[in-house]
Amino acid sequence: MGSTMTTLAPVLTKNWDQADSFTRTAYERNGGYQPLRKALGMEPSAIIDAVKDSGLRGRGGAGFPTGMKWGFLAQGTGKPTYLVVNADESEPGTCKDIPLMMADPHVLVEGVIISSYAIGAHQAFIYVRGEVLHVIRRLRQAVQEAYDAGYLGKDILGSGFDLDLVVHAGAGAYICGEETALLDSLEGFRGQPRLKPPFPAVAGLYGGPTVVNNVESIASVPAIVDRGADWFASMGTEKSKGFGIFSLSGHVTRPGQYEAPLGITLRELLEMAGGVREGHELKFWTPGGSSTPIFTAEHLDVPLDFESVGAAGSMLGTRALQIFDETTCVLRAVLRWTEFYAHESCGKCTPCREGTYWLKQMLKRLEAGQGSEEDLSTLNDIADNILGRSFCALGDGATSPIHSSIKYFREEYLEHFSHGGCPFDHAKSTKWGA
Amino acid sequence: MSHFPEGSPYDVETRQRLEQDAKDIIARYPQTRSALLPLLHLVQSQDGHITQQGVEFCADALGISQAQVVGVATFYTQYKRAPMGEYHVGVCINTLCAVLGGDEIWESLSEHVGVGHDQATEDGKISLERLECNAACDYAPVMMVNWEFYDNQTPESAKALVDDLRAGRPVPPTRGANGICSFKEASRVLAGFNDGRAHEGVQAGPESVVGVELAKEKGWEAP
Questions:
Q1: Of A20, B58, B65, B166, whose CA is between 20 and 30 Å from B203?
Q2: Which parts of the chain are coiled coil (chain B) (predicted)?
Q3: How far is A132 from chain B (nearest CA, A)?
Q4: Contacts A14 to B, Cβ<8 Å
Q5: Do residue A429 and residue B99 have CB atoms under 8 angstroms apart?
Q6: What is the pLDDT of residues B160-194, one digit of tens each?
Q7: Where are the domains of chain A?
Q8: Residue among B58, B100, B107 with most chain A CBs within 10 A, to mutate
């Protein structure tokens, strides 16, 4: 551990405790839409530079530098440029964008307007998953309020800049969180990923240059414009700048949303959250959702930034920290995640479509205690044939729980075989269990 | 053979209303086909599920083939192939919720209601669905009714919730509108039509603000 303890740094979550935080009145009372006025007085390229200089990296999991993504936009294509916000939050464990849009939709709307101005888009979309009715209501109301105030529409605040923003509800498909599948879905097709290149920056929505950014990334833009790139970069680590929302869930005393500089550790976050639930100890956890290889108690002090988590064998992902204590059967957890990937595989490419199917079949058999150590090699082998061979990251993600659980919990798999079934009492893992 | 039940033909008045709605939806998009997902939500708001009538309506509205509509409608889990209940009840059974008790909730609820995944009761009141992660993991185990959040559930609370819904007793979501709307009404919101309820309910649940409250208590701020 470092000598000084990292503390929380609420920026995006700062006003969530105010009862009317989702209204324009509250947002403006807290200084909202002032950054927009400032931005409209800046050259668009200066905003892109500020976002580049801030070091902001995509908050949707991949961590690609946001300003650089904007800089890749094809110029002079003769086609309109689009901004599309990926609000299809569906990665198991990830639960930050939904509360953000419910409590403070205006920060996203303001981020969309500033970002669109920066990249020269006159049409933007928020693609939000369809299974969150009230969030969709709140987003639409915020957009309407922004139109009413002249923040959207023609000649925004007299700047001459025009922008229309549409809130588009999905219809239930995890794969639409993949940016090109999202674009296909937004165009009215099945949500299946596209071959890259061309990347969306060159040929995205309707074949036009398109930026697809996560909710939290875009929501971070107003603060960067307002307080400057240096301010943002003063938080976090050398290559993972700024703050992020860390979502603690599972066997933890006070689960919830904790916004902190990147580089904070799980040990520090757990201390703030009252520790693992009383009378129990940490067994395994995901640093960034189910698609990131699991960690164990030996990783409590890994700084939660892109580089450190990567060096320790996983990925920062979406900072979705799912905590499981010693009552949890790791095989059961992995089977359930695998069933999820098999269910959500879009079927386009063979390694993912067939591989997740076979992983599921095998894990079901192994959980029932019918297996041998040789099966673990087969599992790893199937996963090896998905990883890096799939069309998109869904297939890669499906292999993370497999590889990492066998690496850290080989003995537990074998116990299932010698025991002839699951040696755990699942009732003990429940919220009301002992 | 059709992928969806036939459904009853729209009468003239209904068709005119749907056609006006479709026009409004299509007008939002630079290219008309982008309206397909909202249009499917729209016909579901009329029929309670996707019907052959609805498929034809979408195809006509967009000038695409019925096969193209079916190909999309069968891809997304929110489009239902059979009538769902007035209250569509989901139980998250993805890993974290399952481990924290989602499996126990599903088992007891399914037995209590007497139907399985994507099935509705005979009286058309309740349907059940095994849900994948609904982005509320800090509130696990999570349930959804007509896509509104019911947080921190137990087998007992789940059964009581469904009993209340059947009996017509008010059971507002934990984080959502003050009262639950019907599955059809929810589908209409998804299609893009406001029901004027955005201001209702809490801005955030307790778990969402646990960090900001701790920061205030400790005097922690961003620089």
A1: B166
A2: none
A3: 5
A4: 212, 222
A5: yes
A6: 999 999 999 999 999 999 999 999 999 999 999 99
A7: 24-227, 243-291+302-317, 330-428
A8: B100
For residues A417-426, average pLDDT: 96
pLDDT digit string, tens, across residues A271-305: 999 999 999 999 999 999 999 999 999 999 999 99
Evaluate whether the domain defined by A24-227 bears CATH number 3.40.50.11540.
yes
Q: Which of A172, A206, A324 sits opposite B78 (nearest CB)?
A: A172
Residues 6+ apart with CB under 8 A from A407: none
A186 and B147 within 8 Å at the Cβ level: the answer is: no
A429 token code pair: 């893992």
The pTM (predicted TM-score) of the whole model is 0.98
Is the CATH code 1.10.10.10 the one for domain A243-291+302-317?
Answer: no
Predicted confidence band at A1 (pLDDT cuts at 50, 70, 90)?
Answer: very low
**Cis, peptide link before residue A222, omega less than 30° from 0:** no
